Amino acid sequence: MANDSSSPENRESFDGFIFGTFADDAVAMNKSHQWLVKDILQLKEIKVIRIFFAIAPGLTTDEIMSKYKPDLNSPEVCKRIELHIANSYAKYLKPIGGLNRFLEKVYAIPLPPKHLGQSGQERCAIVTNATGPRARAWLKVVGIDNAPKCVSAPHIQGLVHGYREGRDLIGRGHMKILAIEDNARGIAAARAAGCWVLGIQTSTNKAEILSAGPDWVVKDLERLADSVIPIGDEDGPGIKFGIWLKTDPIN
C-alpha cells in the first residue's frame, strides 16, 4: 500500500532527479484539447470525441495530428499549435507546491571536486511531451527561470526512451535517480527506465497513480524541499542528495 502520514520516515539519497511534471496542467490541457477538437481537428462524432479526450493527455501534438489530421500534419503546423497552447492556456497551470524551493536547495549543493564548477543543477532534468517552445513558456509561467536540462517532444519517442535520455543527461552509469510524476503513464515509463518514482497527487485520481506502482506518493514537494541536504561519499561532499521519505517504499 502507499505510504501514509502515519508511516515513519527514512533519509533516502539520490544521485539526481527527473521531473516528469512541474505543474498540474489538467485544466490547461483540457481547454487546449477542446480547442483542438473544435477548431483544428473538427471532430463531430460523440464517440470519437470521447475517445480523443481519453487518450489525448498521453500524446504529443505530432501524435494527435498524425492520428486525427494526417493531411494537415507537419512540423510547422505542430509548432504553431504548440505556440497557441503555450500563449493561450498557460494561465490555467497550477504550479506544484514546493517545486521552486526544492530546485533551489538542490541547485545550491556543489558537486565534488572532480565536477569542478558544477552544481546540483547538473543532476536535474525535465522530461515532457511538450515541444521546446511550450515547455519553456510554461516553465516561465510557474516561475522556473533557471530550468534544468530538458528532454521534450518531438525528441521523445515513447516516454521510456525519454526517461532514459533524461538519465543520460544527468550522467551515465548506475546512478540512483528519482523521477517525479503525476500520471500513471509517466510513472510506468520512469520505472521501466530504471528510476525510483515519487508520485505527485495533482488532478490525477489517486487510485490511478497507485495502480502504476510509484515508490512513494505525496501531495506536493513542500516538506521534501525543507529536507534536502548534501550527502558525501568517497568521491567527496555533495555527490548525493538526501531527502526524507516514508519508509517501506512500494516495489
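[next item in queue]
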Amino acid sequence: MFCYLTTCYTLTTMPPQKSHFEPPKQSQRRRREKAEETEDQLSKRSEDTERHAVSRASQSQEEADRRRRLDVQWTATARQSETQEEADRRRRLDVQWTATARQSETQEEADRRRSMHTQRTAGARHSETLEHDFILSLFIHVIYLSIYLSIYLSIYLSIYLSISHP
C-alpha cells in the first residue's frame, strides 16, 4: 500500500511528463530552428574556414612559387652579372694589355729611333772628326812638305850657287 500511496503522491505532485509524441511547442520549434540555423552557420563557418585555409594555402603556395621564381631569377641575374663582370674584367685586362703592348712597341720604336739618331749623330760626329783630323793631317803634311821643300830648295840653291859662282 505504501508503494501505491507514493506513486499516487508522486503522480499528483509532479507535473505531468510530456510524451515524446506530442507536437512540439513553438518555443521548442524556435530552439530547434535556432539549433539548425546554428548548425548551418557552423557548417558555413567551417566551410568558410576551410575555404580560407585552402585560399591561404594556395596563396602561400603561390607566394612560395613566386619566391622560388624570384630566387631563380635573382640567381640567374647574379650569375649573369658575375659573368658580365668577369667578361668586363677580361676586356679591361685585354685593353690594358693591348695598351701596354702598344706603349711598349711605341717605346721600343722611340728607343730604336733615338738609338739610330744617336748612332747617326755619333757617326756624323765621328765623320766630322775624321774629316777634321784628315784636313788637319793634310795641313800638317803640307806644312811639313813646305818646310822640307824650302830646306831642299835652300840646299839646292846653295849648292847651285856654290858651283856656279866659285
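[queue empty]
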